[in-house]
Design brief:
The protein is built from twelve helices and 15 strands. It has two domains: 116 residues, Alpha-Beta Complex (Aspartate Aminotransferase, domain 1); 243 residues, 3-Layer(aba) Sandwich (Aspartate Aminotransferase, domain 2), CATH 3.40.640. The structure holds pyridoxal-5'-phosphate (PLP). Pyridoxal-5'-phosphate binds next to helix 4.
Length: 385
């Protein structure tokens, strides 16, 4: 197998903006200052300073006050996803609503925990409310209302789209009408490039059943394994009762809290500026090399571009040829809630160098042309039917 030279697969931020020196200095300070804390177990909620820093992060972005005592630090937001699903499940086979295309980590966790996933269609504004309503009504009639609705409403993975505020309000109303909690996964929220910032769902509705998940992986680095859940009692207690890991890493939390003691704005500004250049370059390369046969999303934040290709592309051949030529990407199948083979692929642009983006995309474009049954231009205009 050829070496992967152009890895458009993994959703990571830019390694160049990882603040090595500042984190080193923060580590020295916290080990001196908080040595005693490090000799103890962290407890269910986790490091208080980190919870305060993240409550501030949320409050500054959303303009609402956030109680650090309603926050549970986790081992990345993936643990938050899993813990939520376990805590809300009553029995295997319970239903959960997800976006038709969603984050593969979540889909595979829900599968292994034993949820029956029901997909709701997407468009440029995220989950479609007409289809959500129809789905909730059908599930209600079948007496299998979902335990929750899982939504990545901001810079959705894989499409990159943002749900506008009006649609969020509609979703809140539907959730209320059917008595179903919303689990909002907002791990890309601070990776913002342009356009208005849409409010998080929890900032629009104080229903104590809604749950909010966030992470440090996308704005700082996934190796830190830091994420968190916001949940109000009594929901909060349900999560704590499910937690059997003695809490999350105090050292990582303390270092990051120290690093972000004046807020996350300064670091986010630097890292987002570089990511935005890479997003622009990726879009430019797509325009140059694939405009006649593909369409794609133009995300205003997050790390992904979702590409629709013609139906006549042999997807297996495309993937194999791309790998043989050093290009990695994630096929649409990985994101479909039922793993259906659909004519899409996801490009992650965050951690590649600009040279890799401009060299790698023409290679991918050649593989795509070669995997087609024709030379005809595309016959579709949008990403969705
Ligand atoms: C929507 C979404 N949720 C959760 C995660 C998990 O991130 P982490 O566990 O690193 O915080 C990811 C990672 O790609 C993601 O895209």
């Amino acid at each position: 197998m050829a070496d992967i030279l152009y890895d458009f697969g993994a959703g990571r931020s830019d390694p160049e903006t990882f603040p090595k020196e500042a984190l080193k200095e923060a580590a020295v300070r916290v080990i001196e200052r908080e040595a005693e804390e490090l000799t103890k177990y962290p407890g269910g909620l986790g490091h208080a300073g980190m919870r305060q820093a993240m409550a501030r992060r949320e409050a500054e972005r959303e303009g609402v006050s956030v109680d650090p005592d309603h926050m549970i630090l986790c081992n990345g937001s993936m643990q938050a996803v899993t813990l939520t699903a376990e805590a809300l499940q009553e029995q295997r086979g319970d239903t959960v609503i997800v976006e038709e295309y969603s984050y593969p980590g979540t889909l595979s966790a829900y599968r292994s925990i034993g949820y029956d996933m029901v997909g709701v269609r997407l468009d440029e504004g995220g989950m479609r409310m007409d289809h959500l309503e129809e789905t909730l009504e059908r599930l209600s009639n079948e007496k299998r209302l979902p335990k929750f609705i899982y939504a990545i409403s901001t810079y959705q993975n894989p499409t990159g789209f943002v749900m506008p505020k009006a649609r969020r309000l509609e979703m809140i109303e539907l959730a209320r009408r059917y008595g179903v909690p919303i689990v909002e996964d907002n791990c890309y929220a601070d990776v913002h490039y342009d356009g208005p910032i849409e409010p998080a769902i929890y900032a629009l509705d104080d229903d104590p059943n809604h749950i909010y998940l966030c992470s440090l992986s996308k704005i700082l680095a996934p190796g830190l394994r830091l994420g968190y859940i916001l949940a109000k009692p009594p929901m909060l207690e349900r999560f704590l009762a499910r937690r059997n890991d003695a809490g999350s890493n105090t050292l990582a939390a303390a270092i990051v809290a120290e690093f972000y003691k004046d807020g996350i704005g300064a670091h986010a500004e630097v890292s987002n500026a570089l990511l935005k250049e890479k997003r622009d370059l990726t879009l430019e390369m797509l325009d140059t090399h694939l405009a006649d046969i593909c369409v794609w999303s133009k995300p205003v934040g997050g790390l992904f571009i979702w590409v629709r290709m013609p139906d006549d592309v042999d997807r297996k051949k495309l993937y194999e040829d791309a790998q043989a030529n050093g290009v990695n990407f994630l096929p649409g199948t990985a994101f479909h809630y039922q793993n259906r083979n659909k004519p899409f692929l996801r490009l992650a642009f965050g951690h590649l160098t600009k040279a890799q983006i401009s060299e790698g995309l023409p290679v991918l474009a050649r593989c795509l042309q070669a995997a087609r049954g024709s030379n005809e231009p595309r016959t579709f205009e949008g990403l969705f039917e």
